[in-house]
Design goal:
alpha+beta, 5-stranded mixed beta sheet, 28 helices, globular, binds zinc ion
């Protein structure tokens, strides 16, 4: 019997035949697909014909056809509907796929063909899209070490191997420190804590086999404790343990590991000919250079610090009125800030919820896409991978655009969080292929017969993931290597974060955020309170984030520091870090930077994206209409349909006429008043 994953999908919209696919089909399908891909790659490398764009790059684009199709089904199921068998297969596949991909990038014959094309690119008569694809292939191979000599390759492999060992040790030490610390809480220590914190403290004790209640260093336990406990002595103790993670001086101390990681990263960058690891890491990003990153972060630093210092003065006053003299300390901030929030901004979640029905919010996301891009959504009745999943055909003027799948409810088989993935990517090479895109979330399932209601955060998440989906669905390119969301990491959150802005447009809320029983619109006062609450305590949040981002940058921009802790201290000193705020992640527990490579010299990218989405939405406000057709047209033409067809800064500039400015983001965080001199 044929493996259903290996035959072409011939059903409606060429969707995978979910009902016929069994878990036992995946392992043999992956095996066959990997063998087929290896065969194709070997044939391309050994082709006796001189290299051409068609026989090398286009051939590579199609070499993993089956692997991509099987993976598109499997990786979606592994995240959204996992089983023990699928988890075992995931563990089994990870090293096999990693080995395959390094085999490809280290294939000397293949790289020689790509390099020959790259050197002769001006004479090839390439379209701009082809030239871009060639550039990215060449860059990918060079960055992986394909151009190194034998000794360089050997050293590169050794460096990468040692880095993997060190990263694992870093995160395991962190876990050990978080696991080992526990503080028993007497009944008197629970005073002032809301029910959910008491319950979390009870659960933490139970987990450790203790009676009563306990505090641990799990973020979801310790942060609410710091927010709500009026016991300053206990807050100080808990906070001290929390910020000491990874710096305890014993076997789990991470400081020497961090230093060695930084040294090896610098060596890796220098082997490849870059002057620093930050220069290597930022090259394919929109930011491009460490100087651009520093410039952006420093433009936000001063207004954020001014706002934080003004807030610190208010919180210090509250503490003094409590009869506690002296300075506001880091273990005091969250407690007084939470009291101030309740007094000034309290939102009654229970009053809010009936206005955010799931059906209404799906309708709001679709309606917004219709008004901006003329998309239409027609429900499909098809068998999918789980009964929760719903499907729509997306069309424009009667033309098929994509299939959109929504999988919104939490269930035990689903990984936590929310994401968007393409089960099939858009491309035109080898015949037009339109995408199949899925949004996966973890919203609470309603009781039988009740309507599903979302929180405000949930509704934002729904819009966020739908923004990623639009980036896939509106894609219009020949090569899947650059289609959809195949863009720089500091650019990929632009479409998603930008789409969240439409949820806050008053006419969208008035049209869609209607009471699930009465159908009445949300009262204007509640709506305004909801939007105002977003800027609360952003001085603190921005300062603790920026301090971490600037230290990350300092570590990787230039020679590796022998003593990272001294560099951290010097950076904070230079910045004038407010006394009552510490880095969001200090070096010994900065997992984003040291537990892997993902966000090293890249922690800045959260703010980079936010600057862009705020500035991009401002283009609509400047046009005087959040649904301005001309601006929406430019957004689709230069960003949503354009994938990675050009460097991100050029895409953005084509849309906006200039690079993004920071003012809209400062306004969004409520930091703009602080940015202007307030007193003469
Ligand atoms: Zn996202």
């Amino acid at each position: 019997m044929t493996n259903p994953l290996l035959a072409p999908f011939t059903g409606p919209f060429a969707l995978p035949p979910f009902a016929r696919i069994g878990d036992e089909d995946f392992a043999p399908a992956f095996e066959a697909a990997l063998a087929e891909a290896r065969g194709h790659v070997a044939a391309i490398a050994a082709d006796p014909e001189p290299p051409s764009f068609a026989n090398t790059i286009e051939a590579l684009e199609l070499a993993e056809e089956t692997l991509t199709r099987v993976g598109g089904v499997f990786w979606n199921l592994a995240g959204a509907d996992s089983t023990a068998a699928r988890q075992a297969l995931e563990r089994d596949l990870a090293p096999k796929l990693a080995a395959y991909s390094s085999e490809v990038t280290m294939n000397a014959g293949l790289f020689a063909r790509i390099e020959a094309l790259w050197q002769g690119r001006d004479g090839l008569g390439l379209t701009p899209e082809q030239a871009r694809v060639l550039e990215l292939y060449q860059r990918m191979f060079v960055r992986a070490g394909a151009a190194l000599d034998e000794a360089g390759r050997k050293r590169m492999a050794a460096v990468k191997e040692r880095l993997a060992v060190l990263s694992t040790a870093f995160s395991q030490n962190l876990l050990a420190d978080e696991r080992d610390w526990v503080m028993a809480l007497d009944p008197a220590d629970l005073a002032g804590l809301p029910g959910f914190v008491v319950a979390a403290a009870r659960a933490a004790a139970e987990e450790r086999g203790m009676d009563g209640h306990a505090l641990t260093l799990n973020r979801s336990v310790v942060v609410p404790f710091l927010q709500f406990s009026p016991r300053r002595d206990l807050r100080e103790k808990a906070y001290g343990a929390w910020v000491a993670r990874g710096a305890g001086g014993g076997a789990t101390d991470n400081r020497a590991i961090a230093a060695e990681i930084l040294k090896l990263r610098e060596e890796r960058a220098r082997l490849l000919g870059y002057e620093s690891f930050a220069a290597f890491k930022l090259e394919p990003e929109m930011a491009k250079t460490p100087a651009h990153v520093r410039d952006l972060l420093m433009r936000v630093w001063e207004p954020a610090r001014a706002k934080a210092l003004a807030d610190a003065a208010v919180l210090t006053g509250m503490m003094h009125r409590d009869g506690i003299n002296g300075d506001l300390e880091p273990w005091d901030w969250r407690y007084y800030s939470e009291r101030r929030r309740r007094a000034e901004h309290d939102l009654d979640e229970a009053a809010l919820k009936p206005y955010f029905g799931l059906e209404a919010m799906i309708g709001a996301a679709f309606d917004t896409a219709h008004r901006l891009f003329a998309l239409e959504f027609r429900p499909l009745d098809l068998p999918l991978y789980h009964p929760d999943v719903r499907a729509w055909e997306v069309t424009r003027n009667g033309r098929h655009i994509a299939v959109f799948l929504g999988d919104w409810f939490a269930r035990a088989s689903k990984r936590s969080g929310a994401w968007c993935s393409a089960m099939r990517e858009q491309r035109r090479l080898g015949g037009e292929q339109r995408p199949v895109v899925v949004n996966v979330c973890n919203f609470a399932r309603p009781a039988e017969g009740e309507p599903a209601l979302l929180s405000w955060d949930d509704a934002r998440t729904l819009f966020h993931e739908f923004g990623h989906a639009l980036h896939q669905m509106l894609s219009d390119l020949t090569y899947s290597f650059i289609s959809g969301t195949s863009v720089a990491r500091d650019f990929v959150e632009l479409p998603s974060q930008l789409y969240e802005h439409w949820l806050e447009v008053p006419e969208v809320l008035d049209a869609h955020a209607r009471h699930v029983v009465t159908g009445a619109p949300m009262p204007a006062a509640l709506r305004d309170r909801l939007i105002a609450a977003r800027t609360y305590d952003q001085g603190f949040a921005t300062v603790e984030y920026l301090a971490s981002a600037l230290v990350d940058l300092a570590f990787h921009d230039g020679p590796a520091p022998a003593d990272p802790m001294a560099v951290q201290a010097a950076v904070l000193e230079r910045l004038g870090m407010p006394h009552a705020i510490r880095m969001r992640h200090a070096t010994p527990h900065f997992a984003h930077v040291f537990a892997g490579d993902g966000y090293s010299a890249g922690y800045y990218s959260y703010m980079w994206s936010e600057v862009m989405d705020a500035d991009a939405f401002d283009a609509f406000l400047e046009a005087g209409d959040p649904f301005d057709a001309e601006t929406a047209g430019r957004l689709e033409r230069h960003i949503l349909s354009a994938g990675g067809s050009q460097e991100a800064d050029r895409l953005y500039t084509a849309f906006r006429g200039r690079m993004p400015g920071v003012e809209p983001m400062l306004r969004g965080r409520g930091l703009l008043e602080a940015a202007r001199p307030s007193a003469v």
